[in-house]
Amino acid sequence: MSVDLTAMLAGTKYRGDFEERVKCVLHEVQRAGNVILFIDELHTIVGAGSAEGAIDAANILKPALGRDELQIIGATTLEEYRKYIEKGAALERSFQPVRIAEPTPEQSLLILRGLRERLEAHHRLHITDDALRKAITLSVRYIGDRWLPDKAIDLVDEAASRVRMQALVQP
């Protein structure tokens, strides 16, 4: 089950609203049993929802993590892990870092092939293997601040959007 902390935080007006939402999720996970939560940008649990007199998501999750009542897989960068997660000894003990290297262009091609059907259905057009290969090559060459396959996926998505829009505009 994926947890979007930003969405949980949205619309909270009063102190304690966010805490209550996090506690509800915890209760449901514990009730359901055998659930693994996925939190993208894991480092955001530190400070999420904290306001004057309120506690952040990390402090709400720590007791359940410490008692092994909760399983979480989180994604973050090494830098953000060190800055936010490692600073709290109790929080750090609850997580085991797994470093994942950027996929090679060949591995990225396999990932893109796996996503192709969904992209084709979304944009209502056919995406060739050559287009996938070019997206990988060009994203490696021109997009230096992001990683494969993410940057190639975005490039294919943008190109497909553009092709679809041009097809809709032409008389």
Automatic annotation (TrEMBL):
* GO molecular function annotation: ATP binding; ATP hydrolysis activity
Q: Domain ClpA/ClpB AAA lid, which positions?
A: 105-167
One GO BP annotation here?
cellular response to heat
Domain annotation ATPase AAA-type core: ranges: 12-77
What Gene Ontology terms describe where this protein resides (cellular component)? cytoplasm
Q: Which UniProt keywords apply?
A: ATP-binding, Nucleotide-binding
- Family annotation (PANTHER family): ATP-DEPENDENT CLP PROTEASE (PTHR11638), HEAT SHOCK PROTEIN 104 (PTHR11638:SF18)
Q: What is this protein called?
A: ClpC
Where does this protein come from, organism-wise? human gut metagenome
